Amino acid sequence: GQSYEIRMLDNRKIGELPEINGKLVKSIFRVVFHDRRLQYTEHQQLEGWRWNRPGDRILDIDIPMSVGIIDPRANPTQLNTVEFLWDPSKRTSVFIQVHCISTEFTMRKHGGEKGVPFRVQIDTFKENENGEYTEHLHSASCQIKVFKPKGADRKQKTDREKMEKRTPHEKEKYQPSYETTILTEVG
């Protein structure tokens, strides 16, 4: 339920895709499973979640906090997807809220479970000659884990303690933490 900002940036090289200058593009955000094993059963997992949480959504846009988004939509049948139009030449920030936690999809339910990693994927499209946003421009994603506030604080504390016990050589294998995550381009 916490709002997280995702800044939408025009990362074209000079002269690249001039046909979208002055035009809107559509971005579709999805929260999906990161683990391949869960990707195979994603439909059943999401149906189970819908059955346990009637009327709830997995992903929403915090519209009052967002800047530069046009025509935001959330399809009632796709609980893990939101979409909107935006102008790549203008400042655009979308604030998203994830309403499920990583442990809702683990087998054991007695606390202390690892929690499954999710992935936020953003696919961006331009208009075709019929005015439909079907021509793929770009995809990017990053892994997320969602916890309740107390669980998140506890996880950060135990992760920090684990890192302090490692040797400098072992620490090199891990990414440092940053204030901002740059989403990874998906091929």
TrEMBL record:
GO cellular component assignments: nucleus
Keyword Nucleus annotated: yes
Main location, first listed in the record: nucleus
Sequence ranges of Polar residues compositional bias: 177-187
Domain of life of the native organism: Eukaryota
InterPro entries: CP2, TF_CP2-like
PROSITE patterns for this protein: GRH_CP2_DB
Grh/CP2 DB domain segment(s): 1-187
Keyword annotations: DNA-binding, Nucleus
Name of the protein in question: TFCP2 factor
